[in-house]
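User: Hi! I have a protein structure encoded as tokens and I'd like to know what sequence might fold into it. I'm fairly new to this, so please keep things simple.
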């Protein structure tokens, strides 16, 4: 295994903003409280591995307490009974407050997760605010249909919230994933229990405090940090949670779905792993293709479910492409994520760091050609060099498994048919991309590839209005915008006789 010895020194700059950490307790029924057990766990700074704060550690008893608060808020509280307009107003106010606290949220996100501060500030907070405003705008526009039935009856469909919904959140985009689930669930009139990832609980707690300030009724949103097998499992198996949203690994997705099935058969939305292909055709502009691939894989230190991690390059341009891709990867600036020039901060924690270095070793052992990178950076924290393997074969571990780190695999292809077949030869189906100037080639690819999102001549472009989710073992259900409102509601059919009506 590669060690944490220097390949090149990490740039450790001063941490620019500096806020005190205000919220470290569980947020239940509108109050910050200790865990029932009194236990806490440490959240760490991935730049150093040092402790940032001790956070209350929720377990099954705390989840149950939170579910009871959410149940009461749903059954008796004002939230589901308010008009959509009134709910939207609270959520718009919530979005304004988040925007006003951009710096503090971005600081907490970078401190806890390690992603570049400018990305947290201009990327993640922006996604949170826009996504929330989008669903806030839907809150008063949710409507069913009337049906002309076969007989003297009138049929109507009515969208209703599920009740208490649960969400289990990952650490790669902590606040964005939090709001992707919380925003639509609340806009639809549900109440919630949310468990942030144990690596990154700080922004979720801050967002809980802002929800209260925005006027969200007590109990409508409960945030319980804790670990997966304890607090997470308690959400998945709770008998009084009516709907579950999960984002994380496919492995844990299967566990939570099984727990949901075995408890009260709560429906689940699963957004899971990926091993997304990017096809670079010989007619592509090489510089454009290299830029796309660089972003596709290295963005957020490779910690993206949609990361473009299998780069298929047409054989005629392979050598030229690889030379440019390596040159560009070498220029990426790795270092303290609070420094404005830094593009890549540390990986989120030691577990992920070690896992990625093991994948790098496996790539070497299986005969892939290490073209650049391959080492840890610096001697503290969890930094890894942007890494590219060439001559990767489809059956190598690095080409099959989700690495979730800055490790790119470049593979060679001859024909589009072959590329499509190999691109689809994976258990995953989250995203895919093609770089080509031939619209017929691009269209053929987009309709042949089994993936939930397909980019043509771009990558990592998202929008709160577009459906987001996976095919195959990348999950099911769609998030974002109206799609996520509908996935947080159930549809009721209402039938009534029509008497003396002129239109039957
Ligand atoms: P994970 O799937 O264990 O964590 C995601 C969330 O699930 C966390 O909140 C965690 O506490 C919770 N969880 C874990 N075990 C659980 C259980 N038994 N019941 C209920 N909830 C549980 O992912 P992890 O271990 O942090 O990362 C491992 C790999 O998963 C990564 O290397 C990456 O490949 C993948 N991953 C994918 C993500 C995505 O966006 N699709 C996000 C995070 C990880
Ligand atoms: Mg942390």
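Assistant: Happy to help. Inverse folding works backwards from shape to sequence: for each of the 504 positions I chose a residue that suits the local structure. Here it is:
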């Amino acid at each position: 295994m590669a060690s944490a010895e220097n390949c090149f020194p990490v740039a450790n700059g001063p941490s620019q903003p500096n806020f005190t950490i205000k919220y470290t307790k569980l947020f239940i029924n509108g109050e910050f409280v200790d865990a029932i057990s009194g236990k806490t766990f440490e959240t760490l700074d991935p730049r150093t591995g040092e402790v940032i704060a001790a956070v209350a550690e929720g377990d099954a008893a705390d989840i149950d307490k939170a579910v009871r608060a959410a149940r009461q808020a749903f059954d008796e509280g004002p939230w589901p009974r308010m008009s959509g307009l009134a709910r939207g107003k609270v959520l718009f106010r919530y979005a304004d407050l988040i925007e006003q606290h951009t710096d503090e949220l971005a600081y907490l996100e970078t401190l806890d997760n390690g992603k570049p501060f400018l990305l947290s500030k201009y990327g993640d907070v922006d996604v949170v605010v826009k996504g929330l405003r989008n669903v806030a705008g839907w809150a008063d526009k949710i409507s069913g249909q009337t049906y002309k039935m076969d007989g003297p009856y009138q049929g109507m469909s009515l969208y209703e919230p599920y009740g208490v919904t649960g969400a289990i959140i990952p650490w790669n985009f902590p606040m964005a994933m939090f709001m992707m689930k919380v925003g639509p669930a609340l806009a639809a009139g549900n109440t919630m229990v949310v468990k942030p990832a144990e690596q990154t609980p700080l922004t979720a707690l801050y967002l809980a405090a802002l929800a209260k300030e925005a006027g969200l009724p007590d109990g409508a949103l409960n945030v319980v940090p804790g670990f997966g097998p304890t607090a997470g499992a308690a959400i998945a198996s709770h008998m009084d949670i009516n709907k579950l949203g999960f984002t994380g690994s496919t492995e844990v997705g299967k566990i939570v779905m099984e727990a949901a099935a075995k408890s009260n058969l709560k429906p689940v939305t699963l957004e899971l792993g990926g091993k997304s292909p990017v096809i670079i055709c010989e007619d592509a502009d090489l510089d454009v293709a290299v830029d796309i691939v660089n972003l596709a894989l290295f963005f957020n230190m490779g910690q993206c479910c949609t990361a473009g991690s299998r780069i298929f390059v047409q054989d005629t341009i392979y050598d030229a492409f690889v030379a440019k891709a390596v040159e560009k990867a070498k220029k990426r600036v790795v270092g303290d994520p609070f420094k404005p020039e830094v593009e890549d901060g540390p990986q989120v924690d030691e577990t992920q760091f070690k896992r990625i270095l093991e994948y790098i070793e496996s790539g070497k052992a299986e005969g892939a050609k290490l073209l650049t990178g391959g080492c840890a950076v610096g001697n503290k924290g969890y930094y890894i060099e942007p890494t590219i393997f060439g001559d990767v074969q489809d059956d190598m571990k690095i080409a099959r498994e989700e690495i979730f780190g800055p490790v790119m695999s470049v593979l060679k292809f001859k024909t589009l048919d072959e590329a499509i077949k190999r691109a689809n030869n994976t258990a995953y189906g989250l995203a895919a991309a093609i770089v080509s100037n031939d619209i017929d080639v691009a269209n053929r690819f987009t309709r042949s590839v089994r993936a939930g999102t397909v980019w043509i001549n771009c990558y990592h472009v998202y929008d709160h209005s577009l459906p987001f989710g996976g095919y195959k073992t990348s999950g099911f259900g769609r998030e974002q915008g109206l799609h996520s409102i509908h996935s947080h509601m159930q549809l009721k059919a209402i039938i009534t006789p029509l008497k003396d009506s002129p239109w039957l």
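A useful reference point when you look it over: The chain has 15 helices and 22 strands. Feel free to ask if any position seems puzzling.
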